[in-house]
Design goal:
alpha+beta; eight-stranded mixed beta sheet; 581 residues
Length: 581
Amino acid sequence: MCAMMSGRKLSTLVALMSCTIVMAPSMHAQPRVNVMLPTARANAPLDGRLLLLFSTDSAAEPRFQLSYATATQQVFGADVSGWVPGRAQPVPSDAFGYPLRTMRELPAGTYRVQAMLNRYETFKLADGRELLLPPDKGEGQQWARKPGNLYSTPQTVRWDPTQRRTLTLSLDNEVPPIADFATKETEYVKYVRIRSERLSEFWGRDMYLAAWVTLPYGFASHPDARYPLVINHGHFPSFVSGWRETPPDSTLAPNFSARFQLAGYNRIEQELSFDLFKSWTGPGFPRVLLVQIQHPTPYYDDSYAVNSANNGPYGDAIQYELIPEIEKRYRGLGQGWARFVYGGSTGGWEAMAVQMFYPDDYNGAWIACPDPIDFRHYTVVDIYSDSNAYYERGPFKRTLRPGNRNYLGHISATLQDMNFLELAKGSRGRSGDQWDVWESVFSPVGADGYPARIWDRLTGQINPDVAAYWKENYDLSYILRRDWQTLGPKLRGKLRIYVGDMDNYYLNNAVYEVEKFLKQASPPADAVIDYGDRAEHCWNGDHTRGNGYSRLRYPQMVLPWAVERMLQTAPAGADVRSWRY
């Protein structure tokens, strides 16, 4: 056809065809990323989750810059299996990304790029399952800081999605081991670590529980005293939270807390931590054993302190192995009337759950901003009546459900955002984050051996069979209603629930349902339920201080109530004197 053209027309056509030939491949081309596993960093094939991170912020390494907030940076994730040292691993072009779904959507620009491998090990469980999971290495299931995980040095690169080029990153760095926790012990703070027989049998390998125990003032000088035990439930503690035995550092450069809108918040934390120490060692303060537990699982930084199909018998292991050991070593009274629990958020749910599941073993639970305690309000989802978690559907419209808000109701993330971030970090419930851990605790074992999904992570479609399992086993509100005739008398006066009415994760909605029941329960509950006006996560019952301050004063709030209740309910002949000095 070209030969039949006139010279001018032919030259014009050739020029047009040339432009097409140059541009067409560009439209379908995209950069490739290869990640090298150096032989110096591994001597055997590795399994894990390969993460590729892009950042526009030079304030920190990209591995520390992921969140569901608007300012999050970008991640793409893919599973790798049998990765041979010395070989390059291409990042798949369809690696699941957040917030952008694929690398093809990443706009041209200059980025700091980093790769990281969250390493998995093979767990051979007693029931015959073989699972690839990230073991805790003493860091509390934080993949970006997990000892042994490999990562590349961040590189500044110019990314152009229309150019076919190859970017090679090398996992030259390894996160170092965590220092022995026992080296942090002081006169007052002791570290206890035991091998759990129950958990080791379940997981098919040695599994451990540990705890920080803060000894009461006068422990050594009162050898005949025996003490109540109070557990502060919550996330993985690398040391006692809110505790400082020396005055605040006057040279500490003040920082700013965006969450609490407080300048010099690091100084505030030190001041209030030292205030606790002064109160603890001062006259009249309750003399108790204050305990914070380390119970990370391969799925999260703690087990939620209950037995579950996927995590194993953590509830029984804590209750019947760890606590008796602590009470034996440090002269605990060792009876239910002299044990209390408290916590906020995850710890709030745990405090309520262990008080309910072990009702005779505890005498009270201070429950602050608890994770969903009624699954009709699993944050903003009713897992029993809704068909989709991510949106509400009308005949012509879909409305995405919110996931995070501030006290004014402004939304920073949708429920879909939060779940997609976890899906990028890990498949099969292995992200180490919130929605995955709830499945690891509440779900039955799925067909693939991992926790069964309450909803499809891509579509949000809810599985009613899994929801029914959750209801019977872990919906605390439902269990209260179902079992109240036998459970109620054992819980009378023991439940105190506090939450802000503008909780960032809508956790107040579930509390409303529990309040309805407890107010009219027969036999009476004598429960305390209170709300913080416009208070965000995690309001804990203090109407005189903001969250930034009250969260640092749990012992001062809880322990006087615990002593009061113990003196009112102690059985005849109980020791209510030796520890009251």
